[in-house]
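Hello support,

Our group uses your service weekly, and this is the first time we've seen a run hang past the timeout. The protein is ABC transporter ATP-binding protein. I'm not sure whether the cause is the sequence or the server load. Input pasted verbatim:
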Amino acid sequence: MSAENPAASSADDVVVELKDVHAGYLPGVNILNGANLIARQGELIGIIGPNGAGKSTLLKSIFGMVNVRSGDITVNGESIVGLKADKLVKRGVAFVPQTNNVFPSLSIEENLQMGLYQNPKIYVERLEFVTGIFAELGKRLKQRAGSLSGGERQMVAMSRALMMDPSVLLLDEPSAGLSPVRQDDAFIRVSDINKAGVTTIMVEQNARRCLQICDRGYVLDQGKDAYEGTGRDLLNDPKVIGLYLGTLGTDAA
Ligand SMILES: Nc1ncnc2c1ncn2[C@@H]1O[C@H](COP(=O)(O)OP(=O)(O)O)[C@@H](O)[C@H]1O
Ligand SMILES: [Mg+2]
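Update from on-call engineer: The timeout came from a worker crash unrelated to the input. Re-ran successfully.
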């Protein structure tokens, strides 16, 4: 249940807001059925929910890849509905899809340069920021991204997105397909990114781990926000545990 009041929605610190969004891919078929979400400056927002609930679709709707049929999506107070990727990048939206999120034939350095093709002047400054979080990448800039492990590629993908100094970072299942140790590392890195001040919206199948690190979370079910609360509140909510955390999480609470 979205608990935000209208006054909070217009506050200056709201970076991303979805208001009653109905959206889908095919004519007459909506995947998002009235989704609401708010991400405020500096927040780490988690989105969990069953397979097929529309989590990836929600991120794609912010990044202009889904037809938004009603409702509104704003970034820094302005509607972004209908804008294409290049305009969204200018508005400060960075999206890391779940798969195919690096250019495998390019080096790490070239991948990072691709991340700020719209503003190459800030390369040195942004490289410093990114390698402050992902130090190991800074030592291997000439290595081809295709030769990296899954976890390392995920780091390159997140780094590429961070190069442009985004207002909001959208991450679709950063821990997917990684070994348990690498999954832990992915969550720590997402925390580090957020602690460095980046407003982040993360979709995760690993629901418990996600709620443990996020400021606030949303449970998405059948294209609607079914529950909203702090990570801690959702982790301890018997209904959320019963319906969504029983089999989804791999960690102990
Ligand atoms: N490109 C697409 N075209 C048509 N339907 C899609 C497409 N991508 C996803 N869907 C459908 O949208 C629904 C929600 O998918 P998705 O957002 O990927 O869910 P989640 O990420 O929560 O598992 C599913 O029924 C899926 O089949
Ligand atoms: Mg998904």
